[in-house]
Design brief:
Largest sheet: 10 strands, antiparallel
CATH class of the domain at 135-293: Mainly Beta
Radius of gyration: 33 Å
Strand content: 25-35%
Structural class: alpha+beta
Number of helices: 9
Distance between the termini: 57 Å
Shape: globular
Helix content: 10-25%
Length: 650
């Protein structure tokens, strides 16, 4: 049990008043009227009330002292994390030479979007090179890639062009492949197609094909920004946004960077080709490019102070919080011997008197130099070198940003802070995610004792789950499987933070980004027991579709009741907002029709629920699977996610 908290002064208002009245005969014997109506007694009560307020504050531990206590034991509040998104830069014209958008290019929102009417700044994390694509090969594949036909010459010279899908029966998986000499990673491509309407039978607004590129491990889908060809069926153009990963692959003994159009399997309500479309020619050009960006403002180098030669010096940069440093961001000391870069470390515990080490606090932006520590035998040791007296302390540059206000919506980052040659405009086609505010002192007070009790070792399942949540603010939930079975393997399931309304979430929103995967893996690798293998993955998301027949209360519009029911179902069957307590659907907890009925009956505007049916749902194709069920079982490694619900209101 925790130690009892002492009450430094337990006197109450009445105790102070009585004590003051008992002192009146000793110090002022002529004062004989001690009634409440006496002005002197009124003053005593006033001062007693003020004293009671002071005593209340004395018995509280100020937040500043509590923060110092946490710092002494090594518990520091988490710094804010940055939101990230992809920015698409569009060229002003099609060019024959590469265009470079340099790393650190800053893009902002309109002022009205930012917190406090201030624009929110994002900066690109690497150089973006938009180069003219060079098409070098064309092939068709069928039979799962076992049959490859080179159609490069036919595409350029044959009068009838090329049949995109080689199988006579148009087998799903047939593909039309275009090979390029250079990587198309992050490019916005326009493919001008010369074709005629031969692939009849399809809906030109929703053709059964998908564009993909090879990323070294598998085929990634490209985003179709615009398609005026009706599925390669008429002259027009296809504008594609290529993912930021594109690696070479050998197809038919030709090594190239491949882009393919793959035929999809028939889906309910989606008509299929009756004949293969034919392409008589095409031309590929670059319209722009996509690059990752983070909610950060790049700040130039600055002088943060001058050393006085004493141990434990601290200097602050001009802006805080400071983001984790890159190779180009460091602290340097300038003295008579020249400029020397000092190494950043987590703490000074392993630093010797000659080690040029510094600690740079992310949350406050304070740069610490090594302290001098006295040991029990009377000796002292300097942990980390001390800059010479008069030496100038500088930072080469840093980035400042982070926080939940960086989670801006799509199409809000539209303003370039400085012009870039041949770039016409910029936009974020997807919302920014991952921004989390700094940890408050109150939150650190709750986490601190738990950390001290359990340490920083991952042994039990609870340790793994706690450390996984500590690894990054982007982790919403963590589930540990197989820990403690003695086989040396631990499986961790992560559910990332997802912004926006639950009704708009899809399975792709719960994908784990490579950055988050690396952060969690490296954090656990330092804390796992030697010999334990840790596998980090995502849960299997079981789609659920509810078909409900409800009766609206008198005077309630059917459309409003239908919307409320749909939103309630989407929130209830959800990894983050689901379940009875609204904190996320529990692992291995089944879903039954009775719970759904009880949920719907509690909605304002629903008079009664006549029927509620549960269906398993394919989150990729959008189709219900099998027949209706009273109970849908959930495996230990799975979570429910809402599919498309059908609500009938009478």
């Amino acid at each position: 049990m925790p130690l009892p908290t002492p009450n430094l002064d337990d006197r109450t208002f009445q105790d102070i008043v009585d004590e003051a009245k008992r002192l009146i005969p000793q110090y002022c014997p002529e004062w004989t009227n001690h009634n409440v109506s006496d002005p002197g007694v009124a003053l005593i009560e006033l001062f007693a009330w003020m004293s009671e307020m002071v005593l209340y504050r004395v018995n509280q531990v100020p937040e500043r002292l509590y923060t110092h206590f946490l710092n002494l034991v090594g518990i520091e509040p988490f710094a804010p994390t940055v939101a990230r998104t992809d920015l698409t830069f569009w060229l002003s014209a099609i060019l024959d030479a590469p265009v470079v958008v340099p790393a650190g290019t800053e893009v902002t929102t309109p002022a009205s979007v930012g917190a406090g009417d201030d624009a929110i700044v994002f900066s690109t994390v690497r150089d973006l090179v938009i180069a003219p694509p060079r098409l070098a090969a064309a092939q068709t594949t069928s039979g799962g890639g076992s049959r490859v036909v080179d159609v490069w010459d036919d595409l350029r010279f044959a009068p009838d062009g090329v049949a995109c899908f080689a199988s006579a029966d148009l087998t799903p998986g047939d593909a039309f492949c275009l090979g390029f000499r250079d990587s198309l990673a992050g490019q916005a491509l326009r493919i001008d197609v010369e074709a005629r309407a031969e692939g009849i039978g399809v809906d030109p607004t929703d053709p059964p094909l998908v564009w993909e590129v090879w990323n070294g491990e598998g085929w990634l889908g490209c985003r179709v920004y615009e398609d005026t060809t009706g599925g390669l069926n008429r002259a027009g153009s296809v504008v594609l946004l290529v993912p930021v990963e594109h690696e070479p692959l050998s197809i038919g003994n030709v090594v190239a960077y491949w882009l393919r159009a793959r035929l999809l399997a028939p889906a309910p309500g989606r008509p299929q080709y009756q004949a293969s479309p034919r392409v008589r020619g095409l031309e590929v050009s670059a319209l722009g490019g996509t690059v990752g960006a983070e909610h950060a403002e790049r700040l130039p180098g600055e002088q943060i102070g001058r050393s006085d030669g004493t141990p434990g010096q601290t200097f602050s940069v001009g802006r805080a919080p400071v983001l984790p440093r890159t190779e180009e961001e460091y602290v340097e000391v300038v003295d008579g011997d020249g400029t020397v870069v000092w190494t950043e470390v987590d703490d000074f515990s392993a630093s010797g008197p000659g080690d040029r080490h510094i600690v740079w606090d992310d949350a406050t932006g304070v740069v610490h130099f090594g302290p001098r520590v006295r040991y029990p035998d009377g000796s002292t040791r300097q942990h980390g070198a001390i800059p010479r007296d008069g030496a100038v302390v500088r930072v080469s540059g840093y980035r400042s940003g982070g926080g939940a206000h960086g989670n801006v919506g799509s199409s809000t980052l539209t303003r370039l802070r400085s012009s870039v040659a041949f770039v016409n405009n910029v936009v974020n086609l997807a919302p920014a995610t991952g921004g989390v505010d700094a940890e408050t002192v109150a939150e650190a007070k709750v986490r601190g004792p738990l950390t001290l009790r359990t340490g920083q070792r991952a042994v039990t399942a609870g340790d793994y789950e706690r450390l996984t949540r500590e690894a990054s603010h982007e982790v919403a939930r963590a589930r540990c499987l197989d820990a403690g079975r003695g086989n040396g393997a631990v499986r961790l399931l992560l559910v990332p933070q997802v912004v926006g309304a639950p009704t708009a979430h899809t399975i792709d929103d719960f994908a784990i980004s490579p950055t988050l995967m690396q952060t969690v893996t490296e954090y656990l690798d330092e804390r796992r027991v030697i010999g334990t293998a840790v596998e980090v993955s995502t849960p299997y998301y079981q789609g659920v579709s509810v078909v409900a027949l409800v009766h609206a209360a008198p005077g309630r519009p059917d459309a409003l009741v239908r919307q409320q029911v749909t939103e309630a179902l989407s929130r209830f069957i959800h990894p983050l907002t689901g379940g009875v307590d609204g904190t996320g659907w529990a692992f291995a907890q089944d879903l039954n029709a009775a719970a759904v009925t009880q949920l719907l009956e509690a909605i304002d505007g629903v008079d009664r629920v006549e029927e509620a049916l549960l269906f398993e749902y394919d989150l990729r194709t959008g189709a219900r699977l099998g027949s209706a069920k009273e109970v849908i079982r959930l495996e230990p490694q799975s979570l429910f996610l809402s599919g498309r619900h059908q609500v009938v209101v009478r």
